[in-house]
Each structure stands twice: as C-alpha cells, then as structure tokens.
## 1
Amino acid sequence: MPEETNPQAEAITPEQEQPPAEQPASTETAEPSGEDALPEWARKELAKVRGEAANYRTRLRDAESRLSEAKDPAEIEAAVTELKAQNAELERSLLRNSVARRHELPDDLADALRGEDEAALEAHAKVLAKYVPAPLPPSLGGGLTPDDGDGEMDPRKLARLTRR
C-alpha cells in the first residue's frame, strides 16, 4: 500500500528549514565543494548511479499505481508476478555487475556475462578477464624527465632562484 504523505511537509526545502542567520554565506574564493570537487570519472559514475536510482523510483511508482488500480485477485496476481520478474532481473543484473567488478571487467563486458548463478558467472568472467588488457601501472617517475630543460645548468641562475 502506498504511504500517504503530507503535501505541506514536501513543500519545505532545506533552505527554508534553516533560519536566515545560519545559512552559509557564499564566497567566491571558497574551494569547490560537493560534486564540483570530484574528479571527472567520479562525476560520470555518480550521474550513472543517479539515473539508475531514478529509473528504480519510477518503476516503484508504476508498480504502486498498478497495484492500487487492481480490482480483482487476477489483476493483483498479474501485477505481483510482473514485479517478481522485474525483481529477479534486477538481482541478476546486480550479481552480474558485482562479478564483473571483482574481475575488473569493463562495463561493456559486464553486460555480456553469461550464466544463471554466481558460479557460472564467475567462470565466464575468468575467461573474459584473460582478454582484457591489464591496466597501466601508475607512473613511478621521480617528477623530472630526461627531456626537461635544455641540458645546461647555470649556477648563477640557480643561486638567484634560491635567494628569492
């Protein structure tokens, strides 16, 4: 059964809950916070996860509306059967993605995993992992590369730089 909510409680935003004196003042020199501080890959992953969550919320609302509109037991049973099928597919997708992450497979290959249970998915992931190139190791350089500078060292320039 869907929960009934108070429309007045939903209309209050977080800005309205805080008194004006407690709201943080915006400064132009402040460091970026929240999503702006995240690297690009994290922002993409966050957007992907938020999209999936929105999809799940819409599916939930659709299922709630179908169940509330059902008149006889046959309609209710059909709606419940459909929800169980969707739930099973979501659980399989979650299992497939977790196995792919464990074996460090890219997203494209995660969708290609075959198998009905975790053991079959693991076996197929091991086979696919053989064909995925290993990630490049992090750069172990000391910071300078041999082609830095013109090769000449002027002690006077170095001395002037250290005095400043």
Note: The first helix runs from residue 7 to 11.
## 2
Amino acid sequence: MNDPERTMLLSVHPRFATAILAGTKTVEVRRQRVAAPPGTPVLLYATAPTMAIVGLARIASVQVASPREIWSASRTEAGISRREYDAYMSGALRASGLSLEAPVAFESPVPLAALRSAGSFHPPQSYRYLTGEDLQKVLVAAPDGGAALCNTLSELVRV
C-alpha cells in the first residue's frame, strides 16, 4: 500500500495528458530535479482549457541529468519536438525525465471547479505531493460513475 503523502499531482498540457494516457508518451520531462521513487502514483492534471484530473500513471523511474542527456535518453518517448524541448529547457542546468507506466484514464475527469467546491484546492504549476486530505477532496469531488478513479484513490487513502 502506498503512503498517500507520496502521491504526486502533475500538471501537464492536455495534449500531453492524452498522449500519456494513450501510452504514446512514456516520459515526462521537467526543468528541475524530481525525486520520486519507482511506483509513486501520479495523478495527471490537464491544464487549461481542460482543467481537470484526467487519469493516473505510476513512476517507473526518474533520470536526473543535463537537459542534453535527458533529450538523448528520452527523445522518442517524450512526445515533444526538439524545438519545443529546447525552448522549454532554455537556461536549465539540470532536467528530469520521469518514465511513466500503467496509465489509467478516468472515464469521468474531476474538474477543477468540483475540486474547489470540495475545499481549497490549487493545482501546481509543475507538480506537488498530495496529502491524505487532498486525496479525500479528490474523492469527494469525483463525478458519480468514476469507478477507476474511485477504486484507485480509495486504495491510496485506505478507505
């Protein structure tokens, strides 16, 4: 069973969330060092215009290196063009490549408005770890019928 405080909420553009959930993007790149052990659950928050938690994956591994090394290791799995990557990494000295596995798309995404109606909720600029209380808010905000979401989150918060 996972420690709920080690569940990550990762903000990604909607096209990347779709690609991760489809299994065509298996590496998410970040400008900063990300320290997360293999098996860490990652809730995917799709940014505007979607503005909802749309699915979940697990971290298989994290590579921290120079942006050039991360590109060399992950260019075919990152789902981003070299031009986009270089623009995103401009000025960064270190980068992280999060290898993701076991993606699950939620049949009923959890919209930001519903998350906020369940209590104070702020999606991260990049990523953050969620507390057990945060996960409870996500469960409360989940639309009816979100079986994959509810089963996964119930396991995480040990409900």
Note: The chain has six helices and six strands.
## 3
Amino acid sequence: MIDPGRTAILRAARKAFAREPYDAVTLRGVAADAGVSAALIVKYFGGKEALFERVADFTEAAQLLLAAPNEQLGEHAVRTLVAYRRENDQDLLVRVVFAAGKGDERALIREHFRDQVTRAFAARLTGPDAELRAGLITGQLLGLGAMLAIDKTGPIATADPQTIADLYAPAIQDLIH
C-alpha cells in the first residue's frame, strides 16, 4: 500500500532537489511543499542526505521497466510507465529532466539515471551500438513520461494503456533487437 505522506514527501523533494542547489533545500521547505512536518521526513528518511539519495536513486524505476524478457520489453516498459503515472500521479523517470542544470547534485541525479537506467537497458541489449540504442530507448521513455505529465485531460491521459503500448512500443522494440 502506498503511503500518501511518503509519496508527497518524495514528490516535493524531487522538485526541490531538481530546481535548487542542494544547500538551498531544507527539510522544512520540503515538508511545507509536501504538507507534512519535517519530523515526518526524518522519521521516513533520516535526514536531508538520505532523502536526496532516495530522490537520486533510479534503481526501482529500472527494475520495474526491465521486468520482462527482451521479446516483450518495449511493450512492458511502455505499459509500466503509463500504469505507474496513473496509479501514483508521478513518473518513474522525468525527474532527471529537471536535473539538467548546473550543480553537483544535479550531476549526481543525471549520473544515477545513466548508471541505473540507461546502462541497465544497454546491458540487456545485444549487437552493435547497444549503448546508443539504450540512450534512444530511455529518451523515448522520457518523452512519453513527459507527455503523460503534461497531457492531463487529452488523448494520452484518457487512452487505454494497451492502445498507447500498441502505438508507442514498436519503436522501442525495434531498438531492442
């Protein structure tokens, strides 16, 4: 079962760490944005450093996206991304886009994404240009994640997940083989 307080904290922390330098982010600020107390953040995460490490960690995202055999990986990744967005009102990957600016903490978020997601896809691929193809796959997934975040009421927001997978996954699957 998903804890709404924990989810709100992570959502607020992702925004804060992606937009502000590490030193500018405070537990009180994250707590205020999440609508919880700073003590609850300490209870769940132990402190600011541990909270940042959780925000910068894409291990769970990679595990969820890669939990299928290569023959079904494109469809699985798309369906997983759509389902996660709809069930949790957040995206597995898009937070890395907000880490595009300067700063050591933003670089760490990008590094974790590259190591934990893109390279995890690359490790599954065979043949030439595996790292390039993995980057293109994660780029396509980021694009879909961004559109799911932006299009709150339009056709992407209301489409059946299987329809989205049927239309979007073949391009990803072509990069897997």
Note: The mean pLDDT is 91.
